Amino acid sequence: MGVRRFAPLDPAKRREGDDRRVLKGVVFDVDGTLCECLPQTYMFAEMRSALGITKEIDILDHIYSLPPGEQETAQEAIRAIERRAMASQRPQAGLVALMGYLDSRGVKKGICTRNFDAPVEHLLTTFLPGSLFWPVVTREFRPPKPDPAGILHIAKQWMHEDGGESLIMVGDSIDDMTAGHRAGAATVLLVNEVNAHLAEHAHTDLVVEQLDQLIGILEEGFEGREVGEEEKTEEKL
């Protein structure tokens, strides 16, 4: 796929003959991206304890593997934990500034999360009232990340395109980076002390420490990192 690049969102900085893509939209994860990740440190452990599974087992994969009659009971068990965590939601630093900037530049905003709808709605109505996010893809949409299906669905809704090459996926996990990468989108890692090892991952194009750092990057023109030979080989597999 090479280096992911987008032309500057500031029209005054665009050069004549610039063949870089024009950014059409940004897709965001929720937990650890739009809101701080503090609840996650205990929430996932609580979920696995409620379901009786180990850390090595993916929570949603486990639920979907259950007999149909047991899936809703398991879903409600983890929803209860997520509802309790809503009280601890705090906006990520730079959240309001970045969303205001994207709105001012007419850039579409969407969400692709493995969460369910109530915590997402709580975040948006509490911290971003009046800021439009559409589509909002939650775990009711299957298959979930790291499958690219949710991001490809958003691209189709926005632009009637089959790939995500005109998009950026912003997240904090390997699921986010991999889903974005497989969809053809550029990926931005919101780095923290837990996910710092993903900064050099082949599926990560750019790293920021705070959301509003993206404002200057998008104004001047997005440019991901060079892909090494070893990583190019991995992409072909």
TrEMBL record:
Phylogenetic placement of the source organism: Eukaryota, Fungi, Dikarya, Ascomycota, Pezizomycotina
Protein name as annotated: HAD-like protein
Superkingdom of origin: Eukaryota
Gene3D superfamilies assigned to the protein according to its UniProt record, in alphabetical order: 1.10.260.80, HAD superfamily/HAD-like (3.40.50.1000)
A GO molecular-function annotation: phosphatase activity
